[in-house]
Predict the 3D structure of the following.
Amino acid sequence: MLIEKYIYLAIALFCIGIVGVLARRNAIIIFMCIELMLNAVNLLLVAFSKMHHAAAVAKGATAGIEGQLFVFFIMVVAAAEVSVGLAIIVMMYRNTHSVDVNFLNRLKH
Amino acid sequence: MIPVLLIVIPLVSGLLAFLIKQEKNVKVWSLLTSLVTMVVAILGIAVFHKPEYLHTDVAWLPNLNSSFSLTMDGMSKLLCLLTGIAYPGIFIATWHSTYKNPHQFYALMLLMQTGLLGVFVASDALLFYFFWELALIPAYFLCSIWGGERRVAVTFKFFIYTFVGSLLMLVGIIWVYMHTPDHSFAMTSFYKVNLPGNTQGWLFWLFFLAFAIKIPLWPFHTWQPDTYEQSPTAVTMVLSGIMVKMGVFGILRWLAPVLPVGLWGYGDPAASMCVIGMIYASVVAMQQDDLKRLVAYSSIAHMGLMGLAIFVTSSIGIQGVMIQMFNHGINIIGMWIVVELIERQFGTRKMSELGGLAQQAPSLAIMLVVVSLANVALPLTNAFIGEFMMFNGVFSSKASNYHYIFMVVGGISIILSAIYTLNMIQKVFYGNTSSLTANARDIRVNEKFVLAVLLIGIVIMGVYPKPMIEATKHAVDAIYSKMFIKLP
Amino acid sequence: MDISQVLFYALSAMALGSAIMVVISRNPVHSVLWLIITFFAISGHYILMNAQFLGIVNLIVYAGAIMVLFLFVIMLMNLNAETEPQKNKWLKLAGVVAGGCLLLVLVAALKQAEVKGKVAMLETGDIGLIRNLGKALFTDFVVPFEISSILFLSAMVGAVVIGKK
Amino acid sequence: MNAIVISAVLGVVMMFCGVFTNSKPAVRFVAIIGLLGLLIANVLDMGGYHFFNVNVNGMLAFDIFGLLFNTIAFAATWIYFLLSGRDMERVGVNLAEYFALIFFVLCGIAIVSAFNSLLMLFLGIEIISIPLYILTGSDKRNLKSNEAALKYFLMGAFSTGIMLMGITLLYGAKGSFNMEVIRSGTTTLTPMLAAGLLLLLFAMSFKVSAVPFHFWTPDAYDGAPTVFTSFMATIVKVAGFIAFIRLFEGCFGEVHKQWQLLAAIITAATLFIGNITAVFQQSVKRMLSYSSIAQAGFMLFALVAMNETAKEGLIFYAAAYSLATIGIFAVLLKMKDYTFEGFNGLAKRQPVLAATNTIFLLSLAGIPATAGFWAKFYMLSAAINNGNVMWLVIVGVLCAAVSVYYYFRVIQAMYFKDGEPQEIETSRGFKGLLIVIAAVVVLLGIFPHWLINQLYSFFYL
Amino acid sequence: MNVLQLVWLVPFFPLVGFLINGLLRKQLPKSLISIIGSGMVLASFIVSVLLFTEVKQGNTAVVNLFDFISAGNLKIPFAFQIDQLSSLFLLIITGVGFLIHLYSAAYMHEERNEHFGRYFCYLNLFVFSMLLLVLGANYLIMFIGWEGVGLCSYLLIGYWFKNTEYTNAAKKAFIMNRIGDLGFLIAIFWIIAKLGTVTYTTTDGAGVFDLYQKLTRTDVIGITLLLFVGATGKSAQIPLYTWLPDAMAGPTPVSALIHAATMVTAGIYMIARSNVLYTMAPETLSVVAAIGLATALFAATIAIKQNDIKKVLAYSTVSQLGYMFLGLGVGAFTGAVFHVMTHAFFKALLFLGAGSVIHAMHHEQDIRRMGGLAKKLPITHITFLIGCIAIAGIPPFSGFFSKDEILAAAYTKDKLYYILGIVGAMMTAFYMFRLYATTFLGKFRGTEEQKHHLHESPAAMTIPLIVLAILSVAGGFLGVPEVFKPEAHWLEHFLAPVFAESARIKGEVHHLDHNTEYMLMGLSVGLAVIAILVALFRYSKKPELHEPAGFGKVLADKWYIDELYNFVIVKPLNWLAKWLNSFFEKKFIDGLVNGVGRLVNYSSRQVRLLQSGLVGNYVLLMVLSMLALFVVKFLLNSK
């Protein structure tokens, strides 16, 4: 499979994620869209990892492995982030009974 | 050694003054300090005038090739002397003024003196900039705490305005520093820099702005009348008598010899600003009712002449500037003392509310008249010598194509200065007494003493200027030769 | 067009389609479900590229754990289409346009990418196997591995600080 | 490595401290002592005493630059603990946890000052960010704190996504996360490299709150408990810069010319927006957060100029800026009213606070004889030395002049205005410490190289 | 020791007097003050006489006191030059000066002690400055004296400082003088720029008058014109004359000394001193002659309708100064100097006489309220009459000789000059005798009280009158024209060395033949006598008491020149100042400066709105900026 296709796909997913962040007001949905962005990145990383592996397969069998490990770490971090992020969102909800980010405008100017 | 003492004495004593709580004590303390400083300055000029006494060079920032290097040369001598003399004079003359928190007031005054003296003796560009800014901070606090009604806003404007200028100068200094042959901030290295013409052109404006704002030259002058008006008079004396000289001094020491091509290239526009300023300030001065503002505008006019004399580049003009810096300092301090005496006694500086003082306070009147005459540069007063040389320099300049026009138009300010000065004398001293001045009393002994010393100085320097000219001669030659040597 | 290509396109379409649905679903619960479908599609891609471990982990961690957490929170808050706040139409449009432009710009920028024409190897190569990954993880990548533990610790402490009444 | 391990351990220790003791002074004491130990360990690291010989496999690379920065960051944090540690108690009950989180942040700082792989950068930044999200929202009942935390978190996560995309693109182009590999052979910016670079630039700009990625800063700083704002706005922020410089010099140093303009644009925008917006603020706290953006603009000069002067200057800037800002925040923490009016007449009631605060403000404004002057001096020198960006230098100095406007408003309030008497509790030690810091600021302002020379000479022992 | 080396004593004495009187004016009694004041001038006079005897033998000297300004190539010593011209002026200044000091002692007796001291201190300072002016060996020293006398004039005009009108007059005098001074100053710079020196002449031929040939035509015309601008200021010529009539606000002896006898002749002295340069510039000389003549006539017309005794004399002074310039303009340097001398005698006499009258009339100056004073004030009357005859140019009084010399030279130059000059002379005779007749003849028209107190002045006042009267009568014999007696023009021979160089340049001068000269003399004397008779006839019985109307009013109001100046210069200047101060300065320049501040404030207020508080907006802005930077990188900067 040509790498461009993966690139386009990943970018498309990434941008859909961004649009989601831009277009939604629900903090949880926004957060989910960010997760979508991360997944786009993961996909692209794996694709690149395979590409580099293919290019270097003659020289070293493990070339490209760091891409996949990076994906692993991204997942780890994402998990950590989610735990903290959801905690914050829940805390917010407890205080305001809303997850609408547009209500978050006590701090401005 | 001498320049170090000049800086250290007021600095240490100023810091100590913060701790002296009694008003009387702190006054005595600062007076003594200033007297000691004066003696040191005089010693440096008269007794220990060998180079080894007058030059200090201590490593400061080896990584940047900047050293704590101080030199009291021909150029700085007169200004150090002026600062040395002015301070005791100011302290004595304002002895009866009372300030809240006097210890802070006097401490800041002494710290300001440190900055001023530092500017005059620094022979390292970075050090110069340091002191340049340091002189400003105490001035800011002095004006803002002890000034008049609008003091905070006015002083703030003054501060920011000058700060903008000095930051631009800092950029210029760093640029030049990068291009010195030995990558050093030392004055000697700066003088060796040979930059291409167009670079010198824009660098010229960077430096020029800083100095023009400080001097102040038209149209950068609007901070000045307000600040002078709002500051306590003792501070105004320092500001106008000494601090504005920093600008002129800066041009002579750091602009003209370093960027001669820039100066040649843009001398005419700069000089035009000076000339316009001379006329403009004189005309505006005619409309002033507040004594302080009047003196402020007159100072703008006079400083414009100094700028003009430098920007048209002539040896005698620069010589004139050198001694005029001193003379103008003396005269304007005299002027302020009189203003202060009037304000303290009558609580107003409005000329329209005064009048007839000549009957009630003849000594004051005489002092004011003589100082005013020096202000209009009447012959046999000190200012005449300087103005004569400066105008002469302008007229005979070879660098500018418009020097005749500059001189003639600038000369009109001589007439205008007579108009506003005489108006002032008339309104304040002549005519009938007003309700305020009916019971005026004459001046006290200490004030009389300071003024008398000033007057004697004014006349002596006006009659026999030779020592001053001699003292600055070599400095003038040095600068002048540097202004020409690097012509492409 | 061989089977892997067919699969690729199918999975891509699925991923994109469900991703769009995530964004446009009014009901947050639906969004979560669509996102899970997206993750499945992406896992499919991983497996297609012979990165089985990641494919599995993706399903377990993301679809299984994280998304459940989301769903749980949404349920907890009782969010649904009615409570869903609606953004100003223009702002929404601006968001879409901006995102679209970004897509265009990125695509334009990467069209001439230096990797153009290279192939991402499908189904072959064994770097995606647990054995290889594990070996690398505990040799070359042991430092980041340990450090990620600090990350978890801090997240844990954080969750405690925030969550504790 | 000393710093990374020990700070992590200290974090854990603090966690357990919270479990085993309820005595707040004890917790604080442990934290202060621990941090001192961390500082010493780091200095020893500089001197060649490595406690942990870990094979980092090219993931980390310790150099003097990073270690020096660590030292400064730890020292600043130590001062911060001493000055404001007591004020943390007022935020909430989890004092030990706060300290633990701060230690984790320090661990992240130690990582970002030594990363050699983009993976470590990512981890480091996350280790810094996640505790900060928590700390921002640690005042749980306070809606502003909640809001700040959520905003910070959402935007932070967003920027993490951007950064990861950037890293991915670099990986695609170069096949490795190692900075040396990325750097080697990069003589021109190919499209993918350029795209990756841009995305990384955006993400890092976000972390250092450079305009136009600064939007989170005022809100997060304003909403966060003031005591943590102090930490975030100083130590964390300059750590971001260290990472920023390290990343861009390490990866794209060779092609500096090709992205200099972008950096310059961002810098100019940061200077402009930061300074201009600060002018109109009514709250000193919020003003300080804009001021931190403005100061970031100056620190970005290091990125634009990218030479030795710039790096040395950045270290200096870090120290000068952190010291002054921590000092101001420490004073601010004692105030009940964060508006400018709250400072009215402070000089009469608390001359020491007012005087030291004045020195800090002068330092921030870059007045000579304070450390801040040299910070700006180095940055300007670096940019002038670079020569291509004179316009930026001029913008910089004009903005510096604007900065005087808002810094001096505080001075004006303290000295030239009369205000309502308000109770301010200060201990003698607090005042003494403030005086010491002010003295250091002035000392650094007069002998800027003293500190650096001391550290260097120690290192070369 | 050469007596000439003592020249510094001449200004030294008045300086000492100035210092003593100035510092101790409150302590010393009036008598001592007047003794010191007058005595010092007398001492100067004695030294001047000594010097004069030396100079008469043909000895001249330049005495260097010390280096004044010495910078670069420019060396200006503080030096005195004693030669024929300066020594003559010394005699006039100190001699007449002494008499006036003496007179003042009595005249000012009513003043309070300290003011009396102040008066004498000013007066001494004036003498000192005037002596500097004439003694200076270079233009700069002359300029010092030049400004110095201007200052003293200012101080003395405003002596009664309570009166705002007086102080206005003083101010006006100073400012008008300053305008002239600027011209003088520029001339000095011009000379320095071209010749590098301002010393008149040196033994090694490096002075201005030695090197004048190095000057181009433009230079020399420019320099002389500018010097003349200075002269018009000091010597009250068109267009700068208006200060002099106002200067009569000062005490009368001051008017006599400064505004008649000495200071105002400084311009003549200066041109006479620079005769070489002027001879090189015939164009300038024409200008000088034209201005001089115009002033002479113009002022005379005004004098006809003035009713203030001092105003009449003031305009008469302006007019006479015009004659002197006419003399200079037509090349009769000696004649002009001669007229300076005789004018000093008779005009001082007239002023002092007027002072005596005013003294007697208790400060009444309006001649319409006088009349018939001849009997009450006999000495004043006689001496005043002598003064009038002298100024009218009736032989053998001094005025005749000097005026005639000028008119004869004018005739040689251009007959029109002569005709106009003689018309002026006629008018002079007319208004002087109008004054005389109205004041001394007819009936007394003052109040009873004035009449009661009317008495002759004390001896200290009358003695100077008598001495000056004698001089007015006899002074003319120093310059008896060649026609009467060959070689009798002592003054011409005495001054010949001073004007030798210009005489050489001019070459052979065409002399009038004796018949023509007699005819001219006859004509002028005849016309003057007619004018005198008409005046006496008209005014001795029925003086003109009503307010003048028609053209007379124009004359009485001085051709409205003051109003014109006011309208053309003063008002616009004030208006400009007001506009600059209130609009340009505050609104424009300061407005710009403050505008920058306000702009910062304004943009702050606007820019902070970006910080809307909404995460969506923030992210949108971030994405848009990312887009923009991508565009910058990839489309604009696609390297």
Notes: The first helix of chain C runs from residue 3 to 24. Chain C touches chain A through 85 residues (CB under 8 Å). Chain C has two domains: 1-81+119-128, 130-165. The mean pLDDT of chain C is 88.
